[in-house]
Amino acid sequence: MNSPTDSPELPRSVGPEDGTPMRGLAVLHPLNQPVEFMRFCPHCQEETRFIAQIEMLNGLWGCCANCGDERVVPYTRTMEAA
Fold first, then answer.
1. What are phi and psi of 67, to 5 degrees?
2. Total Cβ atoms within 10 A of residue 20
3. Which residues contact 10 (CB under 8 A, 6 or more apart)?
């Protein structure tokens, strides 16, 4: 920072190789090919196509193909070690 109007550099975070920041998310595995399925979108108030782009520990991260709302869709079936 050279002057009071300069912004400090943002800390690096986990994200895709293209440099798009994704703060606060633990990326398990970027999907080589997006996974698409139908899902109810709370913003569109209808069932729309959901495009998952990243596999997370608790679900798939992606967006609504209609409105672009981004969210993590949690897995519905999980296994726990006994």
1. -110, -15
2. 8
3. 21
